[in-house]
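FIELD: query
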Amino acid sequence: MTLQNRVTPLGAIVATPERGLVYGNRGCLHDAGRRIRRQFQGTRWIACRLEFRGRHRADPMQPGRYTGLFFLDEATAFAAGHRPCAECRREDYNRFMEIVGERRAGDVDERLHAERLGPRRQARIDELPDGAFVLVEGEPWLVLGRELLRWTPGGYAGRRAYAGRAPVVTPATSVEALRAGWSGAVPFLHPSASRRS
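FIELD: result
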């Protein structure tokens, strides 16, 4: 059975057989029948390692527990509004907090939540860092070098040259981290990003 626990760059939670390379959560979103009943519970949206201290994320929808979510890669998690977990990714969390100038998890979570719910800002695509997502014709595309890569649940499936302005999907706080040359403990980009089409 394919569970509805895969997150798109737009933050939507979808059902698809591909699992992804990054794990995370937004609280308990599912009911006893493993159906998603809400998009989030609270403002703490985190991105974690797939494995940590022997935990392998075998059952992402245990009754009464948080809903385990999967992301294609960390660029996708950032675009969806998640930040590094302070438990399984302590060094990444500390670096993220330093880059964005916050001291408390609650403060950065509130800041990201406001950006997730607010209007999308427009930006020149050539001024965005690698790993940011933009919307092109309603679809999420990853900025990488001089190209845009089209996101799909199974990987990046199309490339195009870019020019001009576009709505930015990745929250401004996470764009700050990307601009600082982000590199964390989980896969930043899915391997399909390096394949030529």
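FIELD: remark
Residues 43 and 114 are 9 Å apart (CA to CA).
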